[in-house]
Design brief:
alpha+beta; Aldehyde Ferredoxin Oxidoreductase,  A, domain 1; Aldehyde Ferredoxin Oxidoreductase Protein, subunit A, domain 3; six-stranded mixed sheet; 27 helices
Length: 618
């Protein structure tokens, strides 16, 4: 039996109900790890690029990271991958919580889902009694995450972990996610529309329960390595532990990073009213932790007064506050907490949902859409009741919600050329809420990230805030607070961070530990003591680069070229009028030239050169 990982995965054939076990070759694990790396390797070998996302033959690949289920810092994450219903290219989403660890305890590293069930079903993986079976889910269809999670735990095992879709997935909202954890521990595999893919397949949930714990190459050394790593991460994550990602809202506005009015404004005096600091003062209840996490960035909140009284559950994180706050100029914190609760129940990506609402409001302003009135409230900037009503309409695909459920690229295409500047996306994925005019290296990252606009592929803005990770920092000794506006070296910096971050989902580690100064030597030490490998920091970067290039090869099959490595015109030609990034725009042309050179890609096509592929073992 392999150390650490289980060495096998399940294939579930929804059309005929067959479930089969398959081994995982050690050589493949050494090259691509698990998680999104191994999923991409299977995808590249198996998937006909002519298959549409909603073809029953299109698989959905769900794989734990290599260290998921271990006590490595944050060793809990799983990757959910397929051809994206939203973008049409490589689709990938990642989630923490406890589900991934439980899948490892059940004795599996992943699940590959093919076909389409004639009726709604859920998959029950019982590692305690050795049962794997598809069960009817007609009684669950039409219900949302919180209710489904409770029903399935009652139906299977009170300690089972449930991953499921809500109405947004059932209704194929193109940015529907997969939910885990129930109301207080809600975590989302949110981006690129994996929930829509499961909804189309009529797979309502995957429920897991196990008892098998991983073995280690050197358990004592691994435990000591983890103890030392946790100490470093905790010491450098105090703010994240106390306030979560929501604690970044105030500084984000200060440095011109917070999205405002569909990315048109520069400053917003109300940022503090929707911040993590404000949450701590008003609606905070307790801290929550993902499996094996030393940070505990999760926050449970409760709204006890006002129109949103009774709102309870996982508190809004930075992206949700930025999207339903600054992006829509909504300063009503309680309404954002309520919206977050709704999105976690319906199974909606809060980034794409808020971006689509912002697009609609600006489209109305410009006369491209008729005024939108929902439950007696006009949908406009800062009108919280209308925004809440809009979320309901999107998840149910009712009225204007059916239009917004497509994503901004499709919405703009339907409205004509005048709508294109309003649609802030890269390759069809709505831009997350860190402004590439404030941290210009993020421009190169957004333009080239494999799933479309994705801040998590590189997170170079952390260096812009002054986070200096040992063995990773690209500009040691430079004043990061000013250099963040300079495009020089931004392309090389993006590639460098993408290579490092590229191992995190395949290892099953949360990228937030990077902010806790988890550098490449720490990652190598965790891998070596757990598995007995001989990794160095150079191996970390090379492995991340190999996996990144593999995903690029998948996108090349879908017609992606250098011409698609770009940004919305608003970021390139419309500087913020005031604030911490006033007057600045990235020089994307210069940064992409650096980027392609650093990557060893042909600048004319955006394809990796044969020499680079050979060097990476591809």
């Amino acid at each position: 039996m392999p150390l650490v990982y289980a060495g096998k995965y399940l294939r579930v054939h929804l059309d005929n109900g067959a479930v089969t076990e398959h081994p995982i070759a050690e050589d493949d694990v050494r090259r691509f790890l698990l998680g999104s790396g191994y999923a991409a390797w299977l995808f590249y070998r198996e998937v006909d690029p002519a298959l549409a996302w909603d073809d029953p033959a299109m698989p959905v690949y769900v794989f734990n990271g290599l260290l998921s289920g271990t006590f490595a810092p944050t060793g809990c994450r799983s990757s959910w991958c397929t051809r994206s219903p939203l973008t049409g290219i490589w689709g990938e989403s990642n989630v923490g919580g406890h589900w991934g660890a439980e899948l490892r305890f059940a004795g599996y590293d992943g699940v590959v889902i093919t076909g389409r069930s004639p009726e709604p079903v859920y998959l029950w993986i019982d590692g305690v009694n050795g049962e794997v079976a598809l069960r009817p889910a007609g009684h669950l269809w039409g219900r949302n995450h919180y209710e489904v999670a409770a029903m399935l735990q009652a139906e299977t095992d009170a300690k089972a972990q449930v991953a499921c879709i809500g109405l947004a997935g059932e209704n194929a909202v193109r940015y529907a996610g997969v939910m885990t954890g129930g109301i207080e521990h809600a975590r989302t595999a949110g981006r690129t529309g994996i929930g829509a893919a499961l909804g189309h397949k009529r797979l309502k949930a995957i429920v897991v329960r196990g008892r098998e714990k991983p073995a280690y190459h050197d358990a004592k050394a691994f435990r000591e390595t983890v103890k030392a790593a946790n100490a470093v991460i905790k010491d450098n994550s105090f703010g994240m532990s106390m306030l979560g990602t929501a604690g970044g809202v105030i500084n984000s506005e200060k440095y011109g990073d917070l999205p405002l009015r569909n990315w048109r404004d520069g400053t917003w005096p109300d940022a503090a009213r929707i911040s993590g600091q404000r949450i701590a003062e008003t609606i905070f209840q307790r801290h929550t932790f993902c499996f094996a996490c030393p940070i505990g960035c999760g926050k449970t909140v409760l709204v006890e007064e006002g129109p949103y009284a009774g709102t309870r559950g996982h508190g809004p994180e930075y992206e949700t506050l930025a999207g339903f706050g600054g992006m829509l100029l909504n300063n009503d914190l309680e309404s954002i907490a309520h919206i977050n609760m709704l999105c976690n129940d319906y199974g909606l990506d809060t980034i794409s949902t808020s971006a689509c609402i912002a697009f609609a409001i600006e489209a109305v302003e410009r006369g491209l859409l008729a005024p939108i009135v929902l439950d007696g409230h006009e949908l406009t900037w800062g009108r919280a009741p209308a925004i809440v009503a809009c979320v309901h309409r999107i998840a149910r695909r009712e009225g204007i919600g059916d239009f917004l459920a497509q994503g901004v690229r499709a919405m703009a295409a339907a409205l004509g050329p005048e709508a294109a500047p309003l649609a802030l996306h890269v390759k069809g994925l709505e831009v997350p809420y860190h402004d590439p005019r404030a941290f210009v290296s993020m421009a190169a990252n957004y333009a080239t990230a494999n799933r479309g606009a994705c801040h998590m592929e590189a997170i170079t803005y952390w260096e812009g805030y002054g986070v200096e990770v040992p063995g990773l920092v690209f500009h040691p000794g430079v004043d990061h607070f000013t250099d963040r506006l300079n495009s020089r070296e931004g392309g090389r910096m993006a590639a460098h961070y993408q290579n490092y971050q590229g191992v995190y989902n395949p290892l099953g580690l949360c990228r937030f530990i990077v902010k806790g100064l988890a550098g490449p030597q720490m990652v190598a030490d965790l891998v070596n003591t757990a598995l007995g490998w001989g990794w160095t920091p150079a191996t970390v970067f090379e492995t991340g680069e190999r996996i990144f290039n593999l995903k690029r090869l998948i996108n090349l099959r879908y017609g992606i070229t250098a011409a698609d490595d770009t940004l919305p015109s608003r970021f390139l030609h419309e500087p913020r009028p005031d604030g911490g990034a006033a007057g600045n725009v990235p020089d994307l042309t210069a940064m992409l030239a650096e980027y392609y050179e650093a990557r060893g890609w042909d600048p004319a096509t955006g394809a990796p050169t044969p020499a680079r592929l050979q060097a990476l073992g591809l």
